[in-house]
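Q: Structure tokens for this one, please.
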Amino acid sequence: MVSALLGVVGLFLLASLSKSSENIERDVLFQVFSTIGLVSAALTITDKKPAYAALWFALVTLSVCGLFFLQSAAFLAAASVIVYAGAIIVTFMFVLMLASQAGTAGYDRHPQHPVLVTTVAFLLLGLVLCTVHRWNIDKPD
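A: Here is the predicted structure, written as tokens:
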């Protein structure tokens, strides 16, 4: 836990050394997307349950899509959602569901952190929608 906290502090210190642009909103969105992506990637690798690892990987994919939208690369964002979240994660989840017996795992019966997961998911969705909305406003007509 201490090493994770030190890693996050180190990332914020590294980000503070970089040159900030004149658009504070864009910088904050970048920090949020990159932090969610890095933490989710670490949890993807370290989680012992493969179903949760797949869900963490889906969160990594969505945060990378947010970073693509910040760079006005909508095609890359859509392609990564279609390829990774749409194909790989769904296929992996089907394999997990077919390979395990229903109801035998403890995490099948009781959710672990429903409020936290719901809050982070809606925050990420709101940030992606805010980025898409800002991207459409900045487009010249």
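A few notes: The mean pLDDT is 77. The longest helix spans residues 74-99.
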